Amino acid sequence: MKKAGKEALVSELKEKFEKANLGILVHNNGLNVKQVTVLRKKLRGVDSEMKVVKNTLASKASEGTRFEKISEHLQGPVAVTFCYKDPVAPAKVIVDFAEENPALVLKGGIWNQKVISIEELKALSKVPPREVLLARMLGALKAPIGRTVNVLNGVMVKLVNVLKAIEEKKK
Asked: Are 107 and 42 in contact (CB under 8 A)?
């Protein structure tokens, strides 16, 4: 590759490193083209992308970004997954795919300027999606109001029952 091509690739990678909020490193040796295509399609479905990069170019591109901390993990054949939105969905895609295809080996990653281990990546993949978490939070916020309404309603029902009992007693 010519120097101009390398410089363009480094600037493209630097832009991806700056834009992404989660990066996952994997060894993808042993995967065939069909498997890599399937993985990339799944990642595109969750607003992420996987790029196979030369370690020296990735290391150079990560300089000055929050991904600079992972340059020590850039050894051997590495593919980087860039996540731009919800970090849980791509982590789940990668972890599930790695369980189905042992040729894909997790190396770790970086999330919010913190290097994460394989165990932390697996834990992240177990977190429910953002929509589920928001629904749970809304339910938790709504529950006390609902209980208050039920308590107040119960007082009214008891009052009506007492008044009916008094009415029947007087008949």
From this structure: no
